[in-house]
Amino acid sequence: METEISNDHKYSIACPSCDLIYDLSEVPVNSSATCSRCGHLLTQTRENEFLRGVCLSFSALVMMLIASSYPFMQFSSAGLENMMTLPRTVVELWINGMPWLAVIVAAFILVIPSIVLTMILVMQLIMLYDVKTPLVAILGKAIFHLNSWSMVEVFFVGVLVSLVKITKMASVVLGVSFWAYSLFALFFVFTMMSLDRFQCWKKIEALS
Amino acid sequence: MNHAESTEKPRTARELGLASCHLCLKLSADEHHYCDRCGTALHQRRPDSIQRTLALLITASILYIPANVLPIMYTDYLGRTTESTIIGGVITLIEMGSIPIAAVIFIASVMVPLGKLLTLFYLCWSVGYRKPGNERQRTVLYRITEFIGKWSMIDVFVVAVLVALVHLTGLLVFRPGPAALTFAGVVVVTMIAAESFDPRVIWDNKEALDER
Ligand SMILES: [Zn+2]
Ligand SMILES: [Zn+2]
């Protein structure tokens, strides 16, 4: 009974929303499969998906490095001025007596995104060059556990809202890091969109 | 886009004695305790889905009160300190004439968290009491709450940015208030609540009703 099941359903998937079984062994490239009962997107196939993933995650990581090492914004009023960098958002919360909030913000906007991106880059490189290693499964597990806790794009909107709130109080100068972070948020969102859970694990199974 | 055709007549993994891994989607025999492919703990349905979700929702609702009553930020302007709450911040923005931004903050900080709590309460209630209804619509509702959950963090990030940016000692200083932490708590707890709810129970409910 058991062997029969695993053979029959080698490329099968149960819809994560309604449990209906589908055979996804023949989804053509550049198309997607949706559950006919509940509408859940089951998988999406793209040409050169691993190369695309490598390029996107690498670009995002470079932007992240620039964003965290240069001035983000400068605020000045009545001859006084203050410069802000990305790590300062976390440090200032800590100094102001809110260490827990500092930890949460650091995790959501810096730590988790950079860990997830680095792991995606390594995983996609392994997949691109077809390296057989058990490491790929470990990376896959960690990536899919962590990826719902990245809030890069949310933080970016938060930055825009803050800008509107204070432009009327004083003058704000945007730094290199602000533009780098905008690009980082963009590349990050595209990296996440290019990551298809079903296709990824199919490849991981073949490699480990 | 092509709709995937179900193999023969539609069947669920549970009917076939299979369990789908929530992490890697692999189907394993239900007797297995761990996924054959990635080793994650295997369950046909998320364990105690409704009870866990409800417990987390109640926690989030309790945290939601101080998050709205307590100040989210303090402003020291020329030696005078003023406090602002989430709603206060929205009102200030409207007074400043920034209606679109006020709308963004109002949607993200008030409507999204409240809507999420109410939707998840409704889903738990409708499944728990086996209420008939439109399953597809309920599934879409669930997926929306899952997707928009993290966008409520906008206000917390606004506080983080303003505190770091606006620090002109003696003139103008922004400091974080306790509501920033409790509000972040509300967001995190509701995100975990959404994750512990299993949308497949909506369809189990339908199948049980159909058999009657
Ligand atoms: Zn479905
Ligand atoms: Zn698995």
Which descriptors would you attach to this protein?
heterodimer; A: 208 residues; alpha+beta; Butyryl-CoA Dehydrogenase, subunit A, domain 3; 2 domains; three-stranded antiparallel beta sheet; two-stranded antiparallel ribbon; 8 helices; 13% strand; disordered N terminus; B: 212 residues; four-stranded antiparallel beta sheet; two-stranded antiparallel sheet; 7 helices; elongated; binds zinc ion
Notes on the structure:
Chain A has 208 residues and is of the alpha+beta class. Chain A has two domains: 12-45, no CATH class; 49-207, Up-down Bundle (Butyryl-CoA Dehydrogenase, subunit A, domain 3), CATH 1.20.140. Helix content of chain A is 60%, strand content 13%. In chain A, the strands form three sheets. In chain A, strands 6-5-7 form a three-stranded antiparallel sheet. Residues 1-7 of chain A have low confidence and may be disordered. Chain B has 212 residues and is α+β, with helices and mostly antiparallel strands. Chain B folds into two domains: 1-44; 47-210, Butyryl-CoA Dehydrogenase, subunit A, domain 3. Chain B has helices at 49-69, 86-96, 99-128, 135-148, 154-165, 178-196, 200-211; strands at 2-3, 18-20, 27-29, 73-77, 80-84, 167-168, 172-176. In chain B, 56% of the residues lie in helices and 12% in strands. Classes of the chains: A alpha+beta (208), B alpha+beta (212). Bound molecules: zinc ion (2 copies). Residues 21, 23-24, 26, 35, 37-38, 40 of chain B line the site of one zinc ion (ZN).
